Amino acid sequence: YVYVRAVDVHTHLIKMASVVLLIGLLYPFVALSERARRALAALFLAGAWLFPAGVLAEIFVSGLVPQALAAAGAVAAITSLAGIVGGLYRGLRAS
To answer: Which H/E stretch holds residue 91?
Structure first.
């Protein structure tokens, strides 16, 4: 179980880092206010940190708290990605 969770943490970190790089490339095309862009970026980075941290915490702490951390991180990342994709759609549609 510990080995599988450790592999899961590593996999989640790699996937989130890949998404961060992709967002960084497309971010100039996101047609949102600077305040909204910063808020979405902060929300995504928080989710990208909480999600693997929650999975890692599942190794050492049993119970719902680490699962809730991982779930909150995943929800934050998905919510921010939805906002970024919406801004990207607005930006590409306008040009």
So the answer is: helix 64-94
